[in-house]
What does this fold into?
Amino acid sequence: MTSLSGDVSHQTYVHKLFTGRKERFNTIRTTDGLNGFALRSESEHDSYGAAHAGTALSAALGIAVARDQQGTDENVVAIFGDAALTNGISFEALNNIGHSTKKFIGILNDNEWSIAKNVGAIAQYLNKLITNPSYNRLQKDFQRLMKKIPKGDLALKLGHKAEEVLKGTVSNLVLEESANKGDVDGRGGFGSSLIFEEMGLRYLGPIDGHNLPMLIAALEFAKSCDQPIVLHVMTQKGKGYEAAVNHPEKLHGVGPYDIKTGVAIKGKSGPPAWQDVFGKKLVELCKKNSTLVGITAAMPTGTGLKFLEKEMPDRYFDVGIAEEHAVIFACGMATMGLHPVVAIYSSFMQRAFDCIIHDAALQDLPVIFCMDRAGLSPQDGPTHHGLFDIAYLRCVPNIIAMAPKDEDELADMMFTATHCKHPTFIRYPRGAAEGVDIKDEPKLLESWQSRSHP
It folds into this structure.
């Protein structure tokens, strides 16, 4: 059996424990220790290396089609989070699965979170489906009805058709109730049927992911299916650890902390983190410049945009884990006279490289890109190091790229970028800044050059 995951950072921890790495688990995310993500060179059980969301379905389909070509019969399982459905690659894969193989198991791990709370229509759709009382009532009625139908090919076919009708009916009921409440416009949306079944995959769920016998039974059923199937598994982020349940975003990825309370153990006080310097300065600039808006791809805390979200929510946009969309979304805003500030980690910006060239650079639009985690990203490993941005940006026309030596210069660069009529990139590392005081009024840098060192 082949197992994959799209959101692989913490989901792979249990996988590592069960695949011969328990004795080394205390070395995870340290020098020469276990990698924090799935890594093919680390274990034969890591069938595919990944650390960014949205890759599981495409990779799993590639493995499944290769299996079909070779005539073997392994089960290929792709574990993907509900947040990964905000990523365009996931839908490109879903569009292709039903036409490419008859044996494929997708597990949608739905806990309503990525790093931050999920946003957008997909998250709302899944939530309305699983919480709708009509679904639960009709599902029970359907099961009772099916038990009364004699066995046979005709009954099985009728049963499958009835199941499709049930799910389509429930989806329409969800939309109808939402429209009555003013949540949607009632014009159809996703309501004609379940998204997955429209794309040729059988859907089973929702399933309580913490009910082990039920989960095992569902997996055994999935192995016997003669068409691709998606198991919609509901889980609770932080389940079993009260501190994580109460603070799922804060404990998504942490440093040292008190295991009883979940409170981070603070080290020596020092300079603020670069992303916090950026985030607070952006709020100040937004208060003085009505054309500025902030955009994140599901990383409000990691990028520092949490400050803008709190202070000026109408100027803050979270587009989900969709870096390509974030860049083009910003370009559209820029054509209307706004000055969008796109805050994306350096390594994640790689995912939007085509959009940087085609949409921002060739149209010479004044979008400001602020890239945290430039350079080495301690503990995260090669998939998160921001080592390629200088190389991939140097060949792009019409852009201005800058790197501050301290937080005061970062403030100057951000202010200067707001006066620039070209795409502007500002890169800075992870971790604490230099401890330099920021002057009250930022300085406009001449000729887009930073001042020399003292």
Observations:
- The two ends are 60 Å apart (CA to CA).
